[in-house]
Amino acid sequence: MTSPSFPSVPSRVSTYLCELFWQRVRALLLTFDAGWRLRDIRGDAIYYGVDGSNPGQSVQMLRDLFIGLSIDEPQDLPFVELPNGTSAHLHLIPDRDAFHVLLLDAAAERDRQRATQQLGNEQALASQAKSKAIGQLKQIRTELERQHAKLEEAHALKNALIATLSHEFRTPLTSIFGYLQLADRRAHGDASLHEALHAVRRNATYLFTLAENLLEYGRSDGAAPLLNPTPVDLDALAADLDAMFRPLAEEKGLDFRVSLTIDDVEQPVFDEIRLRQILVNLLSNAVRYTRHGEIAAEIVWRGGELSAVVSDTGIGIAAAHRDTVFMPFNRGGHAGRKGAGLGLSIVRRMVDQMRGTLAFESEVGRGSAFRVTLPCGRERAAAHADDAIAPRFWLQGRSILVADDDTDIAHLLEALLGDLGFRVRVVGDAQSAVVEAIAGRPDVLLIDVELSGLSGNAAVYKLRSRGYKGRIVTLSATATSEAREAALRAGADHYLTKPLNVEQFVHVMQQAASAGWNGGGDGSVGA
Questions:
Q1: pTM score
Q2: What is the longest distance spanned by two Cα atoms in the chain?
Q3: Taking all residues of the chain, what is their mean pLDDT, rounded to a whole number?
Q4: Which segments of 34-106 does DSSP mark as H helices, in order?
Q5: The domain at 389-514 falls in which architecture?
Q6: Phi and psi torsions of 119, nearest 5°
Q7: Which CATH number fits domain 225-380: 3.30.565.10, 3.90.1010.10, 3.40.605.10, 3.40.50.300?
Q8: What is the pLDDT of residues 471-499, one digit of tens each?
């Protein structure tokens, strides 16, 4: 085969390029006359499946490919699939009274195009998968939003339930504690009756503490608790704790003691409900997890600070569980133990609310000791010191209007206030309270917040807007600072929570009555 020559290229280079081209493209050149008779075959015939000794079938196949095409003009058929499976580019080249058919290998280019096509297919599939994934993510987001809405609704329902339960617990307990106090005052020196009443009150307090634990755990973190510091009788508190837990400890064969040291002339002032919760929870845990030995509670009031150490010789707390011991539902890693595991988490919350400190030491098999330190409610202490209980004669003849739709509580308040010397009138709804207060101008209005129809706060606001200047005390089962602020903003002078602390109730009533007609509803002396 004669090699072509290239301008300005040495013949040796031209020959090399020609040979390289023929090797790379695996060229096959077939020369035909005008009647498609094969004249010459040059190149790699075997690769394309052309039998040089019997080319008839191959010639016919090529001829069929060019049917309808002029052999007098150059023709180009790209990517022709040959019978032996190879792929070739076919070129027809006219040459005077003959023509040439040139086959060039198209396998590499075919593979590249297939790869490109495959990539395109994969991209299309990826795009479809992406679209599907986006659709699924949208569905998931919609579902998450739906679930979030349900959780928010459940959370709102939970808060509403907690508020309802708090009211439902505190309202009857107000009657229980109030009537117990009233009965105790009227027992006229009957020691056995006094003892029985104290036992009922002590156990009612214990049940109230347990109920408050559950309500405290369920209460929203955003609902700030209302601390209600009042003078605390530590002797009575220690005696109550001894009476509550000594029988439980002795039933298990444990020694039990409660010691009290008072080394301060100042009267201790704390939120008594929360103080009881703390000590009851710590002692309950000590009894639950102690099998042998003793349990001790040491209470010290000194330097305006109360410290309490509850120790036991129980199972102890392993080091691995000390970081989680104050978490809810934690039982110190002792599977199968009774109790919900809420006690210590409630203690931590109560201590934090009272701005105290809580620490413990424990050794597995030897027991635990929990130390609580609480600062005195000094602001309250000062307030009680400055505003000593007014003499009884200040209240003789003073008038008070009571608005409460709970008959038992209304009768209780009427009895307590009557004993204090008030002239008492009772109504059962807020609208009647507004009418009676405007008409009768009582020295004090005592109104429940949670009244059917018009609420107590709405009634107070209406009275203040009409110029009512008398002292107003609101009573509520909602013990949060938000509820207190709402009542004071409405125009109340004092805010009391259920169940009533009788001593505090008496003090506030005397304070309100002694203020006479000087009230303005600014809440500056709110209890």
A1: 0.56
A2: 146
A3: 82
A4: 56-65
A5: 3-Layer(aba) Sandwich (3.40)
A6: -60, -40
A7: 3.30.565.10
A8: 999 998 887 788 889 999 999 999 998 88
